[in-house]
């Protein structure tokens, strides 16, 4: 069974401080990992995904297969980063279709 | 391109009734997935459709069903509604439904069961 764990329900940081949102996963095969973000009153949208190796809005995430982690990082938090962040996993070889397994989410609050 | 659209946006039903929710994917996307979001269980996968066929199903009772039409639009149906079915139902689309593809989400349909 696949599982995604986000240990922090709420993370509060000051503007300009570094941010790290933790994500650990459990999957026996080869996973694809995603970070989705939901800003207030907006729909869920992709922030970044491992396969693209992009940096979006200053956020990066590295897949660590040894520690089965995909933590989201940003060196300097901005007020507009306040949102709900979900880590999600899709498994290669899953029978049909890209079923996403989501973590419970971390609410990031950036304070002035 | 227009994003994923869902109708209706809000719905109030009573226990025992049934409900049908609709989803229109992004033009050209052939895979449609459905998710249930609740405060207690978070985001949970319901099922995925591709070329009018259900390819993958989550761990939900048979009261939850869906279908996909030839234009890739999808509907999901919940029969014999229970209070616990109150949730935000999200639809997502992707090109082919491959595991590495990005899924694009709709705004959701908020269902309240009284």
Overall average residue pLDDT of chain A:
91
Biggest interface, chains and residues, is: A-B, 26 and 28 residues
**Contiguous helical run count of chain A:** 0
Main beta sheet strand tally, sense and closure of chain A: 6 strands, mixed
Judging from the principal axes of the Cα atoms, what is the shape of chain B?
Answer: globular
Order of helices and strands of chain A: EEEEEEEEEEE
Features:
heterodimer, A: 112 residues, mainly beta, six-stranded mixed β-sheet, three-stranded antiparallel β-sheet, 0% helix, B: 114 residues, 11 strands, 53% strand, globular
Q: What this model shows, in words?
A:
The complex is a heterodimer of chains A (112) and B (114). Chain A starts with a strand and ends with a strand. With 112 residues, chain A is an all-beta fold. In chain A, the strands form 3 sheets. In chain A, strands 2, 5, 6, 9, 10 and 11 form a 6-stranded mixed beta sheet that branches. A 3-stranded antiparallel beta sheet of chain A has the order 3-8-7, with no helix packed on it. The mean pLDDT of chain A is 91. In chain A, 0% of the residues lie in helices and 44% in strands. In chain A, strand 5 and strand 6 form a beta hairpin. Chain B contains no helices and 11 strands. In chain B, a hairpin with a 3-residue loop joins strand 4 and strand 5. The model of chain B has no long low-confidence stretch (mean pLDDT 95). In chain B, strands 2, 4, 5, 6, 9, 10 and 11 form a 7-stranded mixed beta sheet that branches. A 4-stranded antiparallel beta sheet of chain B has the order 1-3-8-7, with no helix packed on it. Chain B is mainly β and 114 residues long. The interface between A and B is medium-sized, with 26 and 28 residues.
Secondary structure layout plus pairing:
The complex is a heterodimer of chains A (112) and B (114).
Chain A: E1 3-5, E2 10-14, E3 19-21, E4 24-26, E5 31-38, E6 45-49, E7 60-61, E8 72-74, E9 83-91, E10 101-102, E11 106-111
Parallel strand pairs in A: 2-11
Antiparallel strand pairs in A: 1-4, 3-8, 5-6, 5-9, 7-8, 9-10, 9-11
Chain B: E1 5-7, E2 10-13, E3 19-24, E4 31-38, E5 42-50, E6 53-57, E7 64-68, E8 74-78, E9 87-94, E10 104-105, E11 109-113
Parallel strand pairs in B: 2-11
Antiparallel strand pairs in B: 1-3, 3-8, 4-5, 4-9, 5-6, 7-8, 9-10, 9-11
């Amino acid at each position: 069974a696949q599982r995604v764990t986000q240990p922090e329900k709420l993370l509060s940081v000051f503007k300009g401080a570094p941010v790290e949102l933790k994500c650990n996963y459990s999957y026996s095969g080869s996973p694809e990992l995603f970070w989705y973000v939901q800003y207030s009153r907006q729909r869920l949208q992709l922030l970044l995904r491992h396969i693209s190796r992009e940096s979006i809005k200053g956020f990066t995430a590295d897949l660590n297969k040894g520690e089965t982690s995909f933590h989201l990082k940003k060196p300097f938090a901005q007020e507009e980063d306040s949102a709900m962040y979900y880590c999600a996993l899709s498994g290669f070889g899953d029978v049909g279709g890209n079923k996403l397994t989501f973590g419970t989410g971390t609410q990031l609050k950036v304070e002035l | 391109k227009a994003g994923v659209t869902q109708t209706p946006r809000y719905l109030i039903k009573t226990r025992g009734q049934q409900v049908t929710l609709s989803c229109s994917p992004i033009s050209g996307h052939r895979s449609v997935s459905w998710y249930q979001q609740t405060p207690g269980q978070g985001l949970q996968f319901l099922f995925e459709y591709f070329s009018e066929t259900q390819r993958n199903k989550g761990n939900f009772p048979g009261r939850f069903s869906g279908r996909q039409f030839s234009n890739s639009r999808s509907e999901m149906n919940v029969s014999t509604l229970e209070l616990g079915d109150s949730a935000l139902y999200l639809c997502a689309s992707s090109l082919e439904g491959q595991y590495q593809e990005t899924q694009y989400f709709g705004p959701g349909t908020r269902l309240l069961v009284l």
